[in-house]
Amino acid sequence: MGTSCSSGIRKAIMGGGSHKVCVCGGAGGIGQPLCLLMAMDPNVKELAIFDLNVAMVPPDGVAADLGHIESKVKVTGHSLNVGNAPKDHLTECLSGCSLVLVAAGMPRKPGMTRDHLFKVNADIAKGIVEASAKFCPQAVVALIVNPINSIVPAMAELYKKSGLDPLKIVGVTTLDCVRANKFVADAVGCHPSSVEVPVIGGHSGVTIMPVFSQDPMATKIKQSTLEALDKKTQDAGTDVVNAKNGKGSATLSMAYAAARLGKAILAGMSGTYSTECAYVKSDVTELPYFSSRVVFGRGGVKQVLDIGLLNEYEETRLEEVIVQLKSEIQTGLKYAEQRT
Ligand code: LMR
């Protein structure tokens, strides 16, 4: 009868879209599940997997593996020039891309803040961002590189310096929304899909600010519990780092969240406006970079939406966000200033 062939997962793997996507760091802990989720996106035509770190799994191997799922997507693997046959892999994997998802850089260890990663990760991000500027300047470059609060301003300013649109650089903060939705759903006893908490500000410590007052489910929760959930959302990344005990930070939930943003961006580029929170160049507050709801359309970022109404608690939190985020943005701006 063949009914098992139409199972849910198979129906979900559509493929056959028109966009090329590159996942940089695609053989890593975030990269591999992210590649799987993007290969299942109906708007994707081609997926290029790039990774410098061939010590664990060669990108070619990830591509060979993923190339066997029931999707129309063409999957290719790329690393740096290996052996005697040098090849410009970055040209090959970035050319023609609509979206570059960058899951590169060092993760935190217990006791570290995201800030500790700035120097090493900014240099890694710069290499990829410069290559994107050269080979796919029209692509949206979504950065999952910590500290996002400083790296995104640094990279967006470098884009601006080379005459490109700084709004092509997008910081992935979707995991904060995913976490806030999950925590509210657990507290209320509903499915997370019926919760949509905007999380604004940035992606570290107090700069992570869930706006619970804007979600109807969350407003059923008493204020003292919401304040505890605010702190739980801020600390969620650190909780994963501690639970992984020195062996990395969030990978699966981060891949899920980045794919949620990636799919929204591609939906926008394919003609269906889509909205997600993201950390971008912004004028919705006094700060030049800020995470708020962003509408994605054909060219990428179409509109950065206002933060909307806040309650008294959230107004006070916003002041705290601004003080902390300002100095983290400054770190990024200084980095860009000192580089060409
Ligand atoms: C997260 O929020 O899980 C990531 O930013 C990784 C980290 O270091 O917390």
Explain how this protein is built:
The chain is α/β, with parallel strands linked by helices and 340 residues long. Helices cover 41% and strands 17% of the residues. The chain contains ten helices and eleven strands. The strands form three sheets. It has a six-stranded parallel β-sheet with strand order 3-2-1-4-5-6, with helices on both faces. Helix 6 (148-161) crosses helix 10 (312-337). The termini are far apart. It binds (2S)-2-hydroxybutanedioic acid. (2S)-2-hydroxybutanedioic acid is lined by residues 108, 114, 146, 175, 237, 240-241, 249-250, 254. Residues 108, 114, 146, 175, 237, 240-241, 249-250, 254 line the site of (2S)-2-hydroxybutanedioic acid.
Summarize the structure.
By secondary structure, the protein is α/β, with parallel strands linked by helices. It is 41% helix and 17% strand.
Work out the radius of gyration.
Answer: 20 Å
**So how many helices?**
10
Query: How many DSSP E strands?
Result: 11
Characterize the main sheet.
Answer: 6 strands, parallel
Please tell me the overall pLDDT.
Answer: 94
SSE succession = HEHEHEHEHEHEHEEHHEEEH
The geometry reads as globular
Overall structural class, as computed from helix and strand content, comes to alpha/beta
Unreliable spans are none
Order of the strands making up the biggest sheet: 3-2-1-4-5-6
Terminal CA distance reads 63 Å
> Ligands in the structure?
(2S)-2-hydroxybutanedioic acid
Q: Helicity, in percent? A: 40-55%
